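S1.2 Input.
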Amino acid sequence: MSYTWAVQEQESRASAYTTLAAGDGFRHEIEIKRSRFITVLRRAGTEEDARALVSDLRREFHDARHHCSAFVLGPDRDIQRSSDDGEPSGTAGIPMLEALLRRETAPGVTDLSDLSAVVVRYFGGILLGAGGLVRAYSESVSTALELAPLVQRRRLRICAVRVPHAAAGRLENDLRSAGYAMAETGYETQSTVLRLALPDEPGDLAAAADRLAALTAGSAALQREDTEWIDVPR
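S1.3 Output.
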């Protein structure tokens, strides 16, 4: 398994949420009454990142009539924005935003965030009406989300383990085999610093400490560091 991590600067209420897998983004197109609706999803950590997707697509699809957008940011989903970009008010951006907010990532769970969505529309000559536009933009985003690769992003406690260089490789393999997620490894003059990403719960931390003691005959101990957000494959 591969993991992506980032330092957590401010504790959020949420300890986990779902987002788009890291990469260039995801695209999906549908056609409704001759109009083309091209949905582009991209992961975004800031409003600047989210708005950059709109700018990029305006250049790429410069002859399209509309570039409607919506984005949700933050573990607590506290930043939410949308734009109709010339479509009748409330027929594009808000339905797109609602599609992001209502997307179930598990039964009864709606936690999608850090995601920017843009729907590029090429008008096909047939008017859809307000209701038709709402359905079209909502369906465009919902369908793309059904197909897009998603990952869970979890806030985990990083714990360091200092061991002699000669023992580091074997211990890391043992920890990975035991199912522990490993964060960045550091190197000091006399030792290698292995870092584990653990659920920030007393029981989980105690269990990890016991496992480490068993693997090293009590010669190594966990040292708690900061929390980080880590991508965990679904």
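S1.4 Remarks. The two ends are 10 Å apart (CA to CA).
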